[in-house]
Amino acid sequence: MxxxxxxxxxxxxxxxxxxxxxxxxxxxxxxxxxxxxxxNGSCNLAHKNIREQGRFLQDVFTTLVDxxxxxxxxxxxxxxxxxxxxxxxxxxxxxxAHGDLDPQRLHAAHCVTNVKxxxxxxxxxxxxxxxxxxxxxxxxxxxxxxxxVLILQNIVGLIINAVMLGCIFMKTxxxxxxxxxxIFSRHAVIAVRNNRLCFMIRIGDLRKSMxxxxxxxxxxxxxxxxxxxxxxxxxxxxxQTESAVDLFLLAPLIICHVIDKNSPLYELSxxxxxxxxxxxxxxxxxxxxxxxxxxxxxxxxxxxxxxWGHRFVPIVTEEEGVYSVDYSxxxxxxxxxxxxxxxxxxxxKPSILIQTLQKSELSHxxxxxxxxxxxxxxxxxxxxxxxxxxxxxxxxxxxGMVSPKVQFFTPAEGGQSANAVT
Length: 422
Hints:
Elements: H1 14-20, H2 60-66, H3 69-98, H4 118-129, H5 144-172, H6 175-178, E1 182-184, E2 188-193, E3 196-205, E4 211-225, E5 231-239, E6 253-258, H7 270-275, E7 279-288, E8 294-302, E9 306-308, E10 310-312, E11 316-319, E12 322-325, E13 333-335, H8 343-348, H9 351-387, H10 389-400, E14 408-411, E15 418-421
Parallel strand pairs: 2-9
Antiparallel strand pairs: 1-3, 2-3, 3-6, 4-5, 4-7, 7-8, 10-13, 11-12, 14-15
Helix pairs in contact: 2-5, 3-4, 3-5
C-alpha cells in the first residue's frame, strides 16, 4: 500500500526545519582522569613489572635513603646485630684454637682475657665495635690472629657507622622537608592583565630564611595524538612565564603567564577549558639559604581548579613602617570583567575586550548609584524616625495648609457672564 503524500511541503516540515536550524556547539563532558601530580607534590605514578630489580642494589646508599624510616631502622639494626654475632663467632674460634676455653689452662696466657664462652665472646665483640671498654676483657699480644680480627672489626664497624650516619642525615635533611613551607594558591585564575589574557598563580614562603635563586617552571600535561595516529598519554608542553629570571621570594608573588600564540591555552575559551583534560604543573626550585641543599616544591591545577574571570586579592599592606602579609587571604580571589572567549578570538576581535570593559564600567556605575540611593533612603528614614510625632504633626499641618481655589473672572462680550478659572 502506497503512503499518502503529505499536504505540507517537505521544506516546511519538522525534519526540514530542524536541519536548517543553526545548532549551538555542544561540548562533551570532561572525563574524570587521574592527575599526574597531586596537590601536595607527590607523583601519581606506579611502576610495575620491573624485571631488573638488581639495579637498585648497585646504588645501595640511594636505596636506603629512599626507603621509609621503619625499613631503614630494621636494616641497620639487623646489620649491627649480624656483625656482632659474626665477630663473636670469630673471637670464640680464636679462643678455642688457642686453648683458652680449656678449664685446665686457667693460669696460662690467653689471647683474650675472660673469654670463656660464646656469651662472653659476644659481649667482647660489642665492646670492641662500639669502643665501650669496660676493662674486664682485653686482647693480649700472644695471638697475631686476634690482632687481625680486632683490626677487621674496627674497619667494618666504622663503615657501618659512616653509612648509617650519612643515611640518617640525608633522610632528615631531604629537600622535600623544606618544601613543606613553600605554598601555592589553591586555585589558578585567568583574567585580563595589561590588555592580555593571563594565567596566574600565587606562591609564597612561610619561613624567614629565603630560597636563593628561586625559579618557577610551568608545564601543561595532556593526552595528545600525532597525525600518524600515535597516542601520547603524557605530553609535556613547557609554558613561558614573565619571571624567567631568579625570583626574590621575600613576599608572596603572583606568577603570570601571558596566553599568546605560543601558549597551549591560546585556543581555549572558558567553556572549552572546563571540558578539557589538561593539567598545569607548577615546579618551584631553589637553594635553601641555611643548608645549601637544592629543594623543589610541586603542585598542579586541573581544569576544575582554574577560575576564569577572577583575580587574586592584595595581601601585602604597610603597617607602621613594616610590610605585613595576611596569609588568611592567600588564596582569596575576586570576580573581574573578563571575556569568555579564547585568546585567539580576542586577538582577532579586540573590540570584545573594549565592550566587556565598558559593560563592566556601566554595571559598576549602576551599582554605585543604587548604593548611594539606598544610603539616602536609609538616612531619610532614620531622620523621619528620630522626629517621631513632630514629623506626623508637621505632615498634618501641611495637609491643613491647602491653597484655596482662586477664581479669575474675565469679562465676556456682553459683560454679563464670566469664566471662572481656578
